[in-house]
């Protein structure tokens, strides 16, 4: 009895055979091949043939078909009952058309894997391996994505493997995990301001950002701990890259800058600087001022500006005295005349007299002879010449 069945399949064809035919039949046989009920071809076999093969082509991958064959002789007489079978083409091989891996952000240990492909059946399995370690696995269809975590900032090669309908394909991608961009000090310059105890500082920061802060510290000896040794001279935000710091005496100092990012210590640059305070010059009133003091001129000859300059000269003398002798005197912080002042207040004038007397005492010279002026009292012209004379006596001993 004749049999009809599939012998092999591809993604686009099914090969079949009719076997078990009478090999003594001396005439030609005619075979009419049907697919899903439609005639697709007619072929013949030689006399005495016991079998006949045929291949259905142009089929769709992974599809089931109803196949049928009818066999006739040359007189168009049916030789067998209709033979039929069902067969399916092979599923198409999965294809990974793209596979990429990228770091989610600079400095992150997370990378995003994305892929797409074709002929990948729903629920197909996938694995992603990096350096031999499985970093992700699951099921996928035509496309997918997943995050993976890595341990170092370096170059990697990831491999995606997909198994669909018993077939496995893979694709690799090489990528780099980039370390975070860390702010760093690029430069630090210190320069003494001539004739003063001030030091001008400036610095550069690479990869600067709002989370950055800096501090300038100083000491007479080399620091044993950059963050705690010495004295903090200034603390600054990321937008500040220069400042002037002040010392209380002349000498050679270690000055260093610390950089922090999100309050975490990053690095230090250290320098040395030598300060040298110039001895202040003697003070001289102008002739018009002296005439005014002697009641020979207009008292307005002494301007607010000149009075304030005189106070600045006293402060220079105090700073030099502190630097040279370690006197520890504080500078004048009141007594200056502002732009709206039209009178000199007794309390302010008295404070200046007392401060100058302290400078003279530290210099072992006679003071100005004025201790205070009462509110409503008179400030005589010779008070001013006494003040300048006392200041000059102190300066001459420095």
Q: If strands are numbered along the chain, what order do they take across the biggest sheet?
A: 4-3-6-7
Q: How many separate domains?
A: 4
Report the structural category: alpha+beta
Work out the strand percent: 35-45%
Quick one: how many beta strands?
21
SSE order in H/E notation? EEEEEEEEEEEEEEEEEEEEEHHHH
Number of helices: 4
Helical amount among residues, as a percent range? 10-25%
Task: Report the span from N to C terminus.
Answer: 135 Å
Using only CA atoms, what is the Rg? 51 Å
Mean pLDDT score: 91
Write up this protein.
It is a single chain. 16% of the residues lie in helices and 42% in strands. A hairpin with a 2-residue loop joins strand 3 and strand 4 (38-45). The relative contact order is 0.07. It has 4 domains: 3-88, Immunoglobulins (Immunoglobulin-like); 95-176, Immunoglobulins (Immunoglobulin-like), CATH 2.60.40; 184-275, Immunoglobulin-like; 287-396, no CATH class. The termini are far apart. With 398 residues, it is an alpha+beta fold. It has 4 helices and 21 strands. A 4-stranded antiparallel sheet has the order 4-3-6-7, with no helix packed on it. Strands 11-10-13-14 form a 4-stranded antiparallel sheet, with no helix packed on it.
Summary of the model, kept short:
Helices cover 16% and strands 42% of the residues. With 398 residues, it is α+β, with helices and mostly antiparallel strands. The strands form 6 sheets. It has a 4-stranded antiparallel β-sheet with strand order 4-3-6-7, with no helix packed on it. Strands 11-10-13-14 form a 4-stranded antiparallel β-sheet, with no helix packed on it. Strands 18-17-20-21 form a 4-stranded antiparallel β-sheet, with no helix packed on it.
